[in-house]
Design a protein that fits this description.
homodimer; 243 residues
């Protein structure tokens, strides 16, 4: 059975990778990925064949990885964060479905909800939702519906892909929907370039977030009704009684 | 400034820890945690002072860690998975609020939604919700409301603490609520003892899940309307066009 590994490398720093991710990449002869992520890890894994493709070339990239694995090469597809959460794992499994001798195995990684959350404090301290604002493959109406239900359910909301060059007003639109069900003082936060050069973070209210521009390398957190701002950290209590 | 680290150790295997988690624990002199989790890592970090407490002693455990850190000791509180997601980070930040010279820092880890998901395939391939079924500190009515909204929003649902000795019927109750908005053929899965001895996993329909007993060491995944069963893996597509 040929194996193809989907390896989540975490936010981008070597120290954020798991031992298993590092061992898997060391054992593979070919590493496939989006060039931005490949560049983050190349120096730690020399003497590998690297197959890099640009953005929006996901299907070609995954098919290339499958073809190499089916030829018996030991191949890893690297994704930032976790390989499943808005990563390539699902697509690889769908494309690989017709290959009888191929098994796609996931090596889990620290997704931005966790790594970005750690930078802000403890925003995901209770039930939470992860939603991508990218409408490239998801109808905007469905995204709006999910935002509204998440807001009504008073869950912490973590937003991936909150903006892009073409979608500069999506975060504002999302905040407007959420504000229909949540107070404007709700504690929010965002982290840009998590664990990479130029990391920036800020804690602010939902009303302030609505009027803030962020870029596509930013992960956004919207607290629930219990979320607090403690010593410059964003903290969602689990509910322990504190005397 | 005294520092207190909250370290997510992942599901329990050494290989699931990040490099940063390992380095942090190596640098600390005291490691505090729930005895079950401490036992999982003790052998890898010898010559440390270990402070172990039982279940439901969270406030005492966290206060003990804070007191040690305030005396200048380098202390880490270990949590399974991630230290924020149903972990101790939030409580430590709340309790530590009154200590002027204390900073609580989180080292993110691979939470069960990711590690369990990797074992099943790619269940969290699109927008998802993480909900704990434990009503020890959360009113059951709020949990029911969150389940219903998540089901209506057609998001993948990941359930933590799906059962306990006193709450043997909670998963059935949760599935019944979700079945009001989702088809009974919806692809689901669960993983017990992720990355530990006795790991078990199964992929099944929502109707079958409703009639299945799981224990408190199990993480449950309920797919969205697009989730597929491919080669014994649970796969939620992101939406890429496949020719």
């Amino acid at each position: 059975m040929n194996k193809l590994y989907v390896v989540g490398i975490g936010p981008g720093a070597y120290k954020s990778m798991t031992v298993e991710a590092i061992e898997t990449l060391k054992e593979c002869s070919v590493i496939v990925g989006y060039s931005v992520y490949v560049d983050l890890i190349k120096e730690y894994f020399p003497n590998k064949e690297y197959v890099e493709t640009g953005m929006r070339k996901e299907t070609e990239r995954c098919q290339a990885a499958i073809d190499l694995a089916c030829k018996g090469q030991k191949v890893a597809v690297v994704c930032s964060g976790d390989g499943v959460v808005y990563g390539m794992a699902g697509l690889l499994m769908e494309l690989g479905a017709k290959e009888e001798n191929l098994e796609v195995e996931v090596v889990a990684g620290v997704t931005a909800a966790l790594s970005g959350g750690a930078e802000l404090g403890a925003p995901l301290g209770h039930d939470f939702v992860v939603i991508s604002l990218s409408d490239l493959m998801t109808p905007w109406e469905l995204i709006e519906k999910r935002l509204a239900y998440a807001a009504m359910a008073d869950m912490v909301i973590c937003l991936y892909n909150p903006s892009s060059k073409k979608r500069t007003d999506y975060l504002k639109k999302a905040c407007t929907i959420i504000l229909e069900h949540r107070k404007k003082e709700t504690i929010c936060g965002f982290v840009k370039n998590i664990a990479r050069k130029g990391q920036e973070k800020r804690i602010l209210t939902l009303e302030e977030l609505k009027n803030t521009k962020v870029d596509m390398f930013t992960t956004v957190f919207i607290g629930n009704s219990q979320t607090k701002h403690i010593k410059n950290q964003m903290v969602t209590p689990r509910g322990y009684q504190i005397s």
